[in-house]
């Protein structure tokens, strides 16, 4: 980010340098205005400061109506109580908070068991701030293991690469940029809308540190078939001798598939799957931010990536990009594991899928639209404007109209090789009830009816870049 050159360039478009305090909140001797972009010279009464922050935050949208984000926007009152009670806990300080540290380990061992690690007691894992950090750690482990193998064979460790779909989430682009790994993108197409092993041999070579399989593609919610990717890598090993590992980016699907599609084979059941990450704050149902990454066994995580540090009176192993970070979300994750169990998680995820399928069916009935995919994997789906339906409006205009009703439903172009296809996407999360979904469908129908009455095209249609949420 770069600083704004002048007030008119600021993100909020606000050209005023100060915040005026409402006379109702001013106390005798208190300040009547506060600078926005510099630290105030004097103290502000807590009630006044609270009211300023509260009123500013009111301008945000309603989080429950944000159907763009995968991140949880609702938790029950017991979880909120845990949040408040543990807001002061620093997850990295395992010596001071040993109970929280023990609960963190229980959580990733639960995930190792859920994802069929050969021996959950021998698995290795950690919590993270979110899936982005978890992906970085999974990628770093792949890179370091590849480097060790190459050095042991007396071979060069220059020019490592990682193979993934062109529909990969932006955190993998960051990983490749930050850690100097060549990104090799297998383009998706109408015939191959996800990475499925097709043409994989054209991208894998002796410098490939691993292949990323996405369980729930950001653009559409579709699963990439890990079994097919693994089988394609088996063929490559048979033909070339290259043994390439898989990291499963299960940011969303790793907390849906075990409950909604329990017979799907995608996890540590496949020997090529060395590591899996997920977002506790997505379909793990926790407020942001917490993620998890688990390696199938200690051999999959090189020892030299793990630091033993002396911190506040104790020695502890750590493998993380962040150091100090909140412990509250880890405790909330454990609360949900206890509160829901397999039965509860199954009920919640299937209920979200039911709502997503109801919405998808309702949108498919409208003559303006054609589904890009049906929500049979995670409760996410996308649709496009039917070819030849209208030249007067597009999905960006529909998105704008829905925003007027409070709904955030993004429109965006698909990635490379499908950039001429614009879609709109809905993410159904816990908290979006069937009743709310019915209201949304009504708003979509009303918006389409209004747009269809146009006698000419709307000028200056907004056409965004690829959506990376």
UniProtKB/TrEMBL annotation:
Name the coenzymes or cofactors required: pyridoxal 5'-phosphate
Record protein name field? Glutamate decarboxylase
Q: Which Gene3D superfamilies match?
A: 3.90.1150.160, 4.10.280.50, Type I PLP-dependent aspartate aminotransferase-like (Major domain)
What family is this? Belongs to the group II decarboxylase family.
Q: What is its EC number?
A: 4.1.1.15
Recorded catalytic reaction(s): these are:
L-glutamate + H(+) = 4-aminobutanoate + CO2
Q: Where are the transmembrane segments?
A: none
Where in this protein does the record say N6-(pyridoxal phosphate)lysine is found?
282
Q: Where is this region: Disordered?
A: 1-21
